Each structure stands twice: as structure tokens, then as C-alpha cells.
Amino acid sequence: MAKIVVFGASGKAGKEIAAVAEARGHEVTRIGRDPGVQAAAEVAAGYDVAVSSVADLSRDAAEFYREAAGALVASGAGRIIVVGIYTLLETSPGVRVIDGPDFPDEYRPFCLGHAAGVEVLAESEADWLVMSPSGNFGGTSTGTYRLAPVDPADELTYEDFAVAVVDEIDNPAHRRTQIGVASA
């Protein structure tokens, strides 16, 4: 069983991920509110997996997500799994949802903030994965999921997403990339 730290464990996704991991017998440390970036690096040190499901809407998104990703990389955690957003998934090779001509400007800073964090991960030597809903969170739990390309009509429950994340912890199949997930 893995030793897992879940940052953002008081939120919807983090709480479900921690619960599924505990139910499968993993040793889970739940971190609720942001302990501070440097504290996060210290907390995650020595863990097999660090899961990040955090946001700080009071800060500049790019600054926050760069710092958060950097802290996770610096921690030396064996694996990093980040809860991402579908707007960074590709609609075609090299073209993300956010790059589309009709993407609303008011959402761009938050999305680019997430992208900045992914860039930090990509530039590191860390074993990382960003898992995103392929559409939006919502719907009724099916108990199962599927990997899916971006589709704003797709729904993903927090419960089904947690199963996907912990399945990836139990049987790593994706590394150094971002994948989309939808309820099946």
C-alpha cells in the first residue's frame, strides 16, 4: 500500500480521493486548507504519492500554480498527481480548448495559471500526471469511468473521478502527461 498525501482534502475532489484511497488500505494524510507552499514541500517529502487538488483564488493563478507545482517537485514525492481542468486538454494536436478563438477572455487567467503549473511539472524530472474531467464535474455517480478526449458535454462525478485517480495510483499507466476522465 502507498503512503499518500492529499492536498485540498477538504474540497470535493480531494475529499473523495482521500476516501477511496483509505478504503483501499492506503496510508493517507489529508491536508485541508493551503499550508503554505514551503510547508507543502516539507509535508510531501517522503510520500509515495502527492495528490494536489488545490486552488487559491485570492492569488494570481499563474504565480500560485507555479509555486504549488514547484513545491511538489521539490518535495521529492515519488509521484505527483494534479487535479487539472479540461480547458488544457487538446482538441487537436497542439491546440488546447483555451487556444480556441471563442474561448472567453474572463476565464483565460485562471486557465493559464493551471497551464503554468503544468509547465513547471513538465520541465522537471518528476513522475507526474495531470488528471482532468474531459468536460465538467456533475451528474450521477456510475461507479466507473472512462478515459476520454475533451468533450464539454461529458460529465464526471467526484466519486468516479476519485476511483480513476486511485486506480492510477494503484496501477500507474500514464506518466508526464494530462489525461481526460469522464463517468462511464
Automatic annotation (TrEMBL):
<dbReference type="InterPro" id="IPR051606">
    <property type="entry name" value="Polyketide_Oxido-like"/>
</dbReference>
<dbReference type="GO" id="GO:0016646">
    <property type="term" value="F:oxidoreductase activity, acting on the CH-NH group of donors, NAD or NADP as acceptor"/>
</dbReference>
<protein>
    <recommendedName>
        <fullName>NAD(P)-binding domain-containing protein</fullName>
    </recommendedName>
</protein>
<dbReference type="InterPro" id="IPR036291">
    <property type="entry name" value="NAD(P)-bd_dom_sf"/>
</dbReference>
